[in-house]
Here is the input.
Amino acid sequence: MPKKKTFALRINPEVMEAVEKWAADEFRSTNGQLEWIISKALKEAGRYPKKPKGA
Here is the structure.
């Protein structure tokens, strides 16, 4: 499994509550839901990191 970088996130409590509910509805952890949201936004913006060739 690839290493993951940790960081502190300051977030509005109401937004966090909405993410937690969404995560529960999707059977994901809150962290997993945030990763999914960020990945989706990066892909839609054309900014998702490309995998190196041969990986």
In short: Residues 13-44 form one domain. The CA atoms of residues 2 and 55 lie 12 Å apart.
